[in-house]
Amino acid sequence: MLWVLKYFFEIVRTGIFSLVTGWRGPSGFGSASTAEEVTQGIEASGLTVIVTGGASGLGLETARVLALRGAHVIIAARNVESAIDAKNSMLEQCNTANVDVLKLDLCSIQSVRTFATSFKDLNLPLNILINNAGVMFCPFQLSRDGIEVQFATNHIGHFLLTELLLDKMKDTARVTGVEGRIVNLSSIAHAHTYKNGIEFDKINYQRSYADKRAYGQSKLANILHANELSRRLKEEGTNITVNSVHPGLIMTDLMRHSVILMKILKGLTYFLWKNVPQGAATTCYVALHPSLKGVSGKYFSDCNAVKPSAFARDVNLGKQLWDFSSMMVEEAVPSL
């Protein structure tokens, strides 16, 4: 249960008072704010948004609210049938919603490449990329490319997807003059990782695998990826921001590998948990709110910028992860 203590320590460090009370921070929003509230009055017409994992949970609520605000939302999902059901549900609630579905399995490098090609073939602009999808606390297994599943899905898939779509985002920002935004969903769990933060030489090593530390490692990678990409884009002078967010503790399908444990934990710490509309608030705020124009390389929780762990602020670790991730993508060999 060390990971539970680590989570609680991180919650206390980043502001348990504001989480429990719903106290609104400098942004004007807090832990009790919902995705609809933080985007109220914001016009997103003309913007194209990709939401990975947009067929359920936080991704679905994020996609719904951004479509409600007028954005053209592309739901990128492994389960296309569920994504189509999600789209139909959105249309029932708002018949003017503009939503499309494309298949994406982040655990497969080939699927990521195919998705990027399919999206580009639509000849749409791309203003906002929300890297939301993920898996959590999985038993050890390798992806079809030979990469540990949590690292493959939560980080490598999104790393490659972002790289493949970056030129499209740059073109869109340049032609339209509208700032592009990339949002990586991380977690407070990034603080509970392995001894060295990222175990580069043991990513696929079953004997040292710990499901919760592996999850924390992948969530740390999400922040480091966002920070390093932000640094590179700033050097280029590109009109695109990159930030990471902690959505909060929410009971979703992401926890399917630890349902009983999570229900017990929620029962003991009910005052720390959010519902799905509250959980999607920080993502929608960072993706759309005009007050964050030009803000990049930050980590947000409860719709306010907070300081992540020391590992997450390590610039050299971020650079090392970037090179390592590029190498993994290049050297991955699909299994038969």
UniProtKB/TrEMBL annotation:
PANTHER family: SHORT-CHAIN DEHYDROGENASE TIC 32, CHLOROPLASTIC-LIKE. Gene3D superfamilies: NAD(P)-binding Rossmann-like Domain (3.40.50.720). This is Short-chain dehydrogenase TIC 32, chloroplastic-like. Belongs to the short-chain dehydrogenases/reductases (SDR) family. The lineage of its organism: Eukaryota, Viridiplantae, Streptophyta, Embryophyta, Tracheophyta. It comes from the Eukaryota.
